[in-house]
Design a protein that fits this description.
Helix 11 (213-228) crosses helix 13. By secondary structure, this protein is of the alpha+beta class. It is 48% helix and 15% strand.
Length: 301
């Protein structure tokens, strides 16, 4: 496979070939097809499609989240993304930056939760010297659990005017990074609304808790390769799971021949092992193969 062939396959898969995503049905089909996507492109080496690219049907001059306010395409793409979140066709996670949505398809979100989420999500987080959560994060979790879905503006009012938006952003990010909470709606007047994830998506959380890390990682690797065609797996999955675990899962899939290597230019990438294609046999040849061998009696006759 050449680099040009690989890029063309990705463009077709990522809807950058003019087949833009404009309706809710299109958006559902797109997110289920790719599995993962960012709302806006990023400068870091994160190899996933973008939702705004699929909306535009092109990757030409796409805005980053820092410049989204000045691009007329951003509002329409964001509105369509929020509709996906509302009906749970997609879930939002915090992979790169909380200002740039990382979307996971509803069908594979339980596997993602098994890697990132808490095994006992209803247990309230507690602050402490060894805790991953600050006191403000614990207070915010209790408020969201009691009042959610709730906007960030209302949270600040209840928690006290002395709490800055920057501090509240950081606290919410602590909870979101472990999938304890999720953004479920957006209102231009009040901003994003948050809810505890186990209440917003109880079935997905329950299924994720029941999955092992190895099982979840194997499923996500296969889905990711279906999205990007061929890639270096550790680069992407190293964002939310240890690289040693990723390497172990890839080696197991290679040993089972579910994955294989493919040369793209001067690189060796991993792909889903292509299905074997049976050779086409001409009907006359097939009939000849079916004839029983002649017996010695038949030969004498």
């Amino acid at each position: 496979m050449t680099d040009q062939e690989l890029q063309q396959l990705r463009r077709d898969k990522w809807r950058l070939n003019g087949r833009s995503v404009r309706t809710l049905d299109d958006a559902r089909a797109f997110i289920e097809s790719v599995g993962f996507c960012l709302l806006y492109p990023v400068k870091q080496s994160v190899l996933v499609p973008t939702f705004i690219g699929a909306w535009a049907g092109s990757d030409q001059r796409l805005p980053t989240w820092q410049h989204a306010f000045s691009d007329s395409r951003s509002q329409d793409a964001t509105d369509l993304m929020v509709r996906l979140l509302r009906e749970r066709a997609a879930y939002e996670a915090n992979l790169i930056d909380q200002n740039n949505a990382f979307l996971v398809a509803g069908s594979i979100f339980p596997y993602f939760y098994a890697l990132v989420g808490e095994r006992n999500p209803k247990q309230a987080p507690k602050p402490g010297p060894r805790s991953e959560y600050s006191q403000l994060a614990c207070d915010a979790f209790e408020l969201i659990r009691r009042e959610g879905p709730i906007s960030q503006q209302k949270m600040r009012d209840v928690l006290g005017g002395s709490v800055s938006f920057a501090a509240l952003d950081h606290a919410l990010n602590e909870l979101w990074s472990k999938l304890r909470i999720t953004r479920v709606d957006y209102n231009p007047a009040e901003g994003a609304s948050w809810d505890v994830l186990y209440r917003w998506a109880p079935d997905a959380v329950r299924e994720g808790i029941g999955l092992s890390v190895g099982e979840a990682l194997s499923a996500l690797i296969s889905k990711y390769l279906d999205c990007v065609i061929a890639a270096e797996i550790e680069t992407f999955f190293g964002n939310f799971v240890s690289r040693s675990r990723v390497k172990e899962a890839v080696n197991a899939l290679l040993a089972a021949r579910e994955l294989s290597f493919v040369h793209v230019g001067n690189r060796s990438l991993v792909q889903i092992t292509p299905a074997k294609v049976e050779p086409i046999v001409h009907p006359a040849e097939r009939l000849h193969r079916r004839r029983p061998p002649r017996t010695s009696t038949a030969r004498r006759r």
